[in-house]
Write a structure and sequence with these properties.
Length: 303
């Protein structure tokens, strides 16, 4: 089979399609013929040798922490899914490939109406956003500021917080403001003057913050007077302790994913896929994500 592999850390050119043995499932495992795999900012950080700190990396490595496809083989003791089932799932690495092994408790069934590109890029953003919203205890009546609100995690966090009854302000480039409004957020432009613009949008103050943009966004949130225990970051791993804010981490689960898929299937969650690349063009996909400020998801497909 083909897998996109890195043998050393570096830029996107280190992503190379290679031929590797097709794996066989052991007890409790399933083999999924991958149809789509999401490209996340964390994949770029790992490729560059910059993180995340909680995921030890050994080279050579196949990146990709989310995927969707069809189960084509099952190991002993698997009862949750069967050959032929269409699934989406999550893992730490290994999804930039035509086939992948995964524990059967890390996949859920894909709804018939969920396109492959959406399914393959759903779990990382949706689960990370859920973990963040839960950890920060976003509640009805509060004002929630989401930095990088048009990205995969930010857009999900906007919607999940709105479902909880919070008012949401989201930062983004102006080109993404209509998109954020469609999700129920009040959009605010990035850049100089951000603190004043947020104050104008939230005259009664901001209660809680999710940072998916970086250190400058955290500093702006502190300047807004938000309790640092209610400022959480998913990107500034090294700086969080120094700034006294929370580094948001959590354990993904099939139970959580199934609930989120259910929200999508009933129309309560929306997603946006902005670009689709063949698996062999993973380097180009990484370069697009590296440009930053993108709306929605970038996805690799195998067929």
């Amino acid at each position: 089979m083909t897998a996109v592999t890195i043998t050393r850390f570096g830029d996107a050119a280190e992503l190379r399609p290679t031929t590797v043995p097709r794996p066989e499932p052991g007890p409790g495992e399933v083999r999924v013929q991958v149809r789509a795999a999401g490209v996340q900012p964390v994949d770029l950080a790992v490729r560059a040798g910059k993180g995340p700190p909680n995921a030890p990396v050994a080279l050579p490595l196949v990146l990709g922490n989310e995927f969707a496809g069809t189960v084509d083989a099952v190991g002993a003791g698997v009862a949750e899914v069967a050959v032929g089932d269409e699934v989406l799932g999550f893992a730490t690495f290994g999804s930039y490939a035509e086939y992948r092994l995964i524990s059967s408790d890390q996949v859920v069934r894909k709804p018939v109406g969920m396109p492959w590109e959406v399914a393959g890029s759903f779990t990382a953003g949706a689960q990370t956003a859920t973990i963040a919203v839960e950890a920060l205890a976003v509640a009805a009546g509060e004002t929630f500021l989401v930095h990088a609100g048009a990205g995969a995690v930010g857009a999900m966090a906007v919607q999940l917080a709105r479902l909880r009854g919070a008012t949401v302000i989201a930062t983004a480039r102006e080109v993404n403001h209509d998109y954020l409004r469609s999700l129920g957020a009040i959009p605010v432009e990035y850049g100089d003057g951000l603190v004043d613009r947020v104050r104008a949008a939230a005259p009664n103050g901001v209660d809680v913050v999710l940072d998916a943009a970086g250190v400058a966004a955290i500093r702006a949130s502190i300047d807004l007077g938000v309790d640092r225990d209610r400022i959480g970051t998913i990107v500034a791993w090294q700086e969080a302790a120094e700034l006294g804010v929370r580094r948001l981490v959590g354990v993904r689960s099939a139970r959580r994913l199934a609930a989120l898929v259910g929200l999508y299937d009933t129309g309560l969650l929306r997603t946006h896929v902005r670009s689709v690349y063949p698996l062999a063009d993973a380097a180009a996909a990484h370069r697009e994500v590296e440009t930053g400020h993108g709306r929605g998801r970038v996805v690799l497909v195998t067929g």
